[in-house]
Amino acid sequence: MASTTPSTGDNKRTMSAASNLRHSQTARPSSPHTPQQQQRSGNASFASTTSPGSSFRNEDDAIIFEIGARWIRAGFEGNGSPVCTVGFGPEESRRVGDYRGWIQGASGVGTLPQPVNAEDWVRDYELWRHDLRDVDLGLVEDKIERAFRETYNQHLLTDAGSSRLVLTLPSLMPHPLLSSLLSTLFDRWRFPSVTLLSSATMSATAAGLRSALVVDIGWAETTATAIYEYREVTTKRSTRAMKPLMQEMGRLLTALSSDNVSEQAAKDEIAVGFTYCEEVTTRFAWCNPHGDVGGSAPDPGRTISIPSPTSPEKDFCDIPFARLSEPVEKVLFASGVAEYEMDDEEKSIPLLLYNTLLTLPPDARGTCMSRIVFVGGGSRIPGLRQRILNEVSSLIDRYGWSAIRGKVLERQRQRLEQMKISSQSNGEAPSTNNDSASSPDEEKPDPSREEPEIDFVEQKLRRQNKDTPVSVQGVIREVESLGAWAGASLVTSLKIRGMVEIEREKFLQHGLAGATRDSEPPVPDRRSGLKAGDRSSWTLAGWA
Amino acid sequence: MSRPFPYTYISCPCADTPVPDPARKRRSRGSPQKSPTPEQPNVDNDNKESKEAENQDGDEEEQTFDPRSPRSNFSLYPPEQLLYCEDCHQIKCPRCITEEIVSWYCPNCLFETPSSMVRSDGNRCGRNCFNCPTCTVPLAVSTIENVTATGSQQGPWVLSCAYCMWTTLDIGIKFDKPTNIRAQLQKMTDATAAPALDRSRQASRTFGDLKSPLSSYASIDEQSASREANGEQSATKEDETPTPDLGTDARFAALKSFYRTQISETSTSPGDPLGSDLGFSSPGALNRLMSLYTSSSRLGGLYGGSKKPKSKPPVMREALTASEGLRIAPEKGDADVIERLGSHECGWDGVASIDQRKEQSPDVRFTDDLLPLPCLLRTKRAKRCKSCKHILVKPETKPQSTRFRIRLIALSYIPLPTLRPLALPSSSSLMSSPVPDLNALPPLRPIHVLLTLKNHMFDPVRITLATPSVTPGRVASKVTVLSPQFDIGANSDVWDEALQGASAPVTGDPRLAGLRGVPEAGKVWDKGRNWTTVVLEVVPGTLPGSEAEGGNEAGEDGTLAQQDGDVLEIPVFVHMEWDAEAQLEQQNVGKASKPDDLVARELAYWMVLGVGRIKTSL
């Protein structure tokens, strides 16, 4: 190609320019004499406060946090995996000097004194929930502050606030949560800027893809996000995720522990400790990759021994291995529930995937369906991903890419078919009729499966681009990702600036309300290189 | 509770000042043109802020501190953990200070790590300090062979855990020499990366923690990344497996080098969305400007006649091969993992727990994949007041030293509260029981507790205590401070007390003797040189659902069942006033300075007294 020759010559310059940029970027926050900061006269002394020890260090590496409802992952840009993973639990929200967790063993191991409602059972273990009606934002702020402080002090071992902060967040965040998160960070420490990156896009980046269908089986919800050329195209979500799974597992273990106690009382109440239940779930929850019909399932009589729910510290009890896959089947696949009975927000995960793909335009659909990326805690359940893909492909086999279902439709189509056939050839009508009743797909082949007619323009294009590799398209394929954190680390280390970069001064003046409402971020400015350094306005882009 | 009863906690006043949400503030002021005003509180010193907070509290009719609310867990501290800023005259908790790292050291070998090495070592000890991956106990380096034969302990070395008997032999690792284990381990794990290819995906070893990723990638990134990429490419060419099994970090490096080359290849074209920002001075920018004209206008031939019309600019593509970091999920899926999970030889202990996995590479699933963890470094940190930036704590740099150059702990400024139950003498008519058992307080039976406040300042202090008459929360206990206002003497020379005491050593001060006996309202119980003891009368409430209430609230037991529903904690508001000698700097600034160089100071905070646990039955 014509353009490759100059570009190779520019390679070095590009890199050196990038490194120049890096220096200029890092010089900005450390110098106190920018006009913006001079307004705040009281802060002029901050620049000189760095301790002698920390000034030697390479401080310009951004710190990346991935925040979820249950865990925080933190580390430095350019690392392949986070330095630490910190959870939110009752142990983390104890008073300072309260060492009960060490004296009596962690809470949530043994059985609870009284059965607890399933929602209350998980409440202490999550940082936030998206239903903000029963979330104390002040408490969330407290937890975030402590988690960040301890992460910096114990794991990151750098001075908090000295370097840029990159947050990887789900693309749908309630504004009050986002606002209290940012104001906590900016108020508590002196972060020069906070960059927000969308976790779905980052997961796709960490898989090496430009377009993907990112399925995040998270704590409160499972999201299927279609990403096309690094843009989130559609997102669909379902409440079938790890939280109900954990609750279901808790019910299973409760039933195991109290097989004689009245079953109806334990209907929605859980009597086993959360930590214990989580251990069981993360260790032994599994899923048969082939559904109920598959023959490769382990023999049903096989048992494994897990610590007994009544006294996990002391004895073990045997449990059929197959039972540990029941909660997964029930919660994530909604086995035994017909599709029409499920609300829009509680579709099973295969249906969620299928519906997300269905809403995509055909081109994007073809690209995304062969780039399915599973992330989130649920994706670690062995067999789950394969099972989901199997079910999705069986859905595609059954319905094709058509959203229209129903008996009336079938009848109508049959009637039309009959009319058509009877007009063409009267003799063969009954036999085809039977065929169509059994498999409606065969009567009219799906356009996507037809042999494409030879298009000379396409052929010419293909000849032109024959050195560029043909991308896989139109088949179900799963690509593994390193996760959103690694993606953010990758993107940040490549010195790509995020769309949403919130600067300290601007946020402190107006808060989230200061963001411009432009849905179109100032892309041309960035690319021309004219305004690489400063942006007069900032945007929340996808988070707005 | 956390500590044995009775205990005391102090709530840092910073909890009263909520995180200012700039948006909220702007809305409330309603005057967006006054943009500098919202910044005022940050610039002001804490003194004013606290007063504002008090005023706010006053407006909201004196909100009582509730030790039971979940937020209070984050603002309550044991008195000895608090600091005090002499300039703001405020208590400082870990939330209202900023920290600066003075030195990094390994808690195991107490070697100080130079700051330049910290990040390259991945914040972990670079020597021989390892923790057991299964039980986190420090590992010891020991030989396999018996040491009895010769003194020249030759044999291979292993890391072994003295607690759970885990050794590196369990994962098949031996060391040639007993020193510099971490470098050896790193070399070894790099070497075993190739054999890991034929293992299953989940069983693959990734050595993320052990490699020092930053040293190789970030500093000399381009060079080393390309080198690694080359190495991987050669590796993949060798064993043409469809999905060669790169570890997490190797995959990350591959992806990074892939993106880097893609960006550099495509950044000259204006159309790519990921092009890195170039400086304007760069010739690349000029080039791009020119190409803008030539490609977009039809008159391109006029300007660049010699150039052929530009074809489509190269677009960044996605990763296509495994050497570029792409990994397609294996066909067979997780069947072998499921098989292994269900097998008998794996069992509960064969699978790594959450805590074990937290520190390891994300792919680890079984305990066989766990690697010894280099010891996490610790830091010595200097602490500064967040609002005025004065140093509160400055430790000595050396890890071995426990001394501090500066340390302003709050207990030298605020009175140390201690609590103990009052055992009334048996002659008293009230009751004969010696000391009430604090872990099982009978409800509805009054007890007396003695609250002693000990002053460590060299000025006498006037104290006012206030407490809600009924404790907040579901268990309503009645509390009365018998003498809420009292003075505490200065922390004067110890000899004063000794001399005073010598006058009446055995019989005791008649004044004190008069104080002893029955607690009386309005009277201080006991008083010493720099301490004063007052009596609190507490009537523990009844637990809901207990016998005393007839169990009518049994339906709501769920809320009580949560931990510590039965702990009797009393919030006490402490207000202290004293006349301090004005220091020089304050003399210049202080408007309230009296002619005799005394400045009236005051400090107010909430304190929580943990008295005991209430019994369910009478």
Automatic annotation (TrEMBL), chain A:
PROSITE patterns: HSP70_3
Classification via Pfam families: Actin
Disordered: region residues: 1-57, 420-452, 512-544
Composition bias, Polar residues: 1-56, 420-439
Protein name: Actin-related protein RO7
Composition-biased stretches (Basic and acidic residues): 441-452, 517-534
InterPro entries in the cross-refs: Actin (IPR004000), ATPase_NBD (IPR043129), Heat_shock_70_CS (IPR018181)
Organism for this UniProt entry: Penicillium cinerascens
Signal peptide: none
Similarity comment: Belongs to the actin family.
UniProtKB/TrEMBL annotation, chain B:
Family: Belongs to the dynactin subunit 4 family.
Superkingdom per UniProt: Eukaryota
UniProt entry keywords in alphabetical sequence: Acetylation, Coiled coil, Cytoplasm, Cytoskeleton, Isopeptide bond, Phosphoprotein, Ubl conjugation
The protein, known as: Dynactin subunit 4
Main location: cytoplasm
Compartment annotation: Cytoplasm, Cytoskeleton, Microtubule organizing center, Centrosome; Cytoplasm, Cytoskeleton, Stress fiber; Cytoplasm, Myofibril
Subunit structure, interactors included: Subunit of dynactin, a multiprotein complex part of a tripartite complex with dynein and a adapter, such as BICDL1, BICD2 or HOOK3. The dynactin complex is built around ACTR1A/ACTB filament and consists of an actin-related filament composed of a shoulder domain, a pointed end and a barbed end. Its length is defined by its flexible shoulder domain. The soulder is composed of 2 DCTN1 subunits, 4 DCTN2 and 2 DCTN3. The 4 DCNT2 (via N-terminus) bind the ACTR1A filament and act as molecular rulers to determine the length. The pointed end is important for binding dynein-dynactin cargo adapters.
Composition-biased stretches (Polar residues): 30-44, 218-234
Region feature (Disordered): 1-72, 218-247
Organism of origin: Penicillium cinerascens
Transmembrane segments: none
